[in-house]
């Protein structure tokens, strides 16, 4: 009984007998370096814009890379029925293996045979293609390493890499060559710390589709310098007439490739978040990488099991006519926008070969009242209620990107407003010279 009485009965007495290491005397909750270094360049730029649409004109947003936004493009009945069946079966409510159910991985392996020999063990199911890219960058990169990304390019590469302290080195895509990569510059960027080369084909934001010979040249550079490739091929089936898609992995038996794809765009279900990684190993080079991918896939305990159960039916049963009609629609929209914008003074559209975007160059010297593509876009929204993403969102100033998935009548109306805007603000060379002379005269009178 005496022993019980002698026991410390208060926290104060416990502290007196056992020294406390903490010297904290106030709240100071810090964020991690990973959170601090992670940022979305597009969001940062767009949030900094003064977006005030003209209240007399309905807003036409040619900025959103979601093909379902306006409701004109819908998934096929077969895709929707597959999900309904998975719900009714009642077998999709629990967890799946971290890399995905076997039958779903088997279906993906059949679906991507054009990439080269693929088995279910080469497939990892992810929560959308962005998750696939995240895992690929995470498994290859680490602080002090660098990764090669295209410019202009999809901003998520930088978002995903810089959080880990990975340096992003940009290689140029050349508009005068339909956005082919500057191969000389690309090769010069490689050093001992280069952990991966990202190849986006078909491209976002450019809508480029690389010819086979150009892809072979890129793969040859990777082989000479022993750099693995991360192939972002989410738009692989969005290819317009006159162009042909070639999977990077199909062009070499020596360069290891992690190919990223998914349901998102082709099946018009971006919100379902179903993507995948295809591991194209070469002579066991990716042995440790495979183990790393397995480790990383458990971080979120696998992807959506409901969509996994529906995946075989979605991939096997969706008719080719559905896909053909979708690509034909995008191609028609691209031709419509390109032919119309090409007639507008001061603008230089580049006809895409695929995907669902078009880049348009701005002859900034003929729009002297706008200092940058940002101010051009702001004024376009303010006067005409047409919003396109400025080129700086993709590290490529004096351009803007428009999305081709909106209804056709909206494209027609948007181009009409764009023409009106440019006609109001375009300045001829003589006008520009006169403005410059008047500005110089004003400066002299103030002296």
TrEMBL record:
Catalytic activity field: L-tyrosine + 2-oxoglutarate = 3-(4-hydroxyphenyl)pyruvate + L-glutamate
Name of the protein in its database record: Tyrosine aminotransferase
Organism name: Anopheles minimus
A Pfam family: Aminotran_1_2
Stretches assigned to the Aminotransferase class I/classII large domain: 58-418
Pathway(s) where this gene product acts: Amino-acid degradation; L-phenylalanine degradation; acetoacetate and fumarate from L-phenylalanine: step 2/6
CDD domains recorded: AAT_like
EC number(s) reported in the record: 2.6.1.5
Subunit structure: Homodimer.
Family from the record: Belongs to the class-I pyridoxal-phosphate-dependent aminotransferase family.
Keywords: Aminotransferase, Phenylalanine catabolism, Pyridoxal phosphate, Transferase, Tyrosine catabolism
GO biological process: L-phenylalanine catabolic process; L-tyrosine catabolic process
Record GO terms (molecular function): L-tyrosine-2-oxoglutarate transaminase activity; pyridoxal phosphate binding
N6-(pyridoxal phosphate)lysine found at: 265
InterPro entries linked to this entry: Aminotransferase_I/II_large, NHTrfase_class1_PyrdxlP-BS, PyrdxlP-dep_Trfase, PyrdxlP-dep_Trfase_major, PyrdxlP-dep_Trfase_small, TyrNic_aminoTrfase, Tyrosine_aminoTrfase
Swiss-Prot/TrEMBL cofactor(s): pyridoxal 5'-phosphate
Transferase among keywords: yes
Superkingdom of source: Eukaryota
Cited function: Transaminase involved in tyrosine breakdown. Converts tyrosine to p-hydroxyphenylpyruvate.
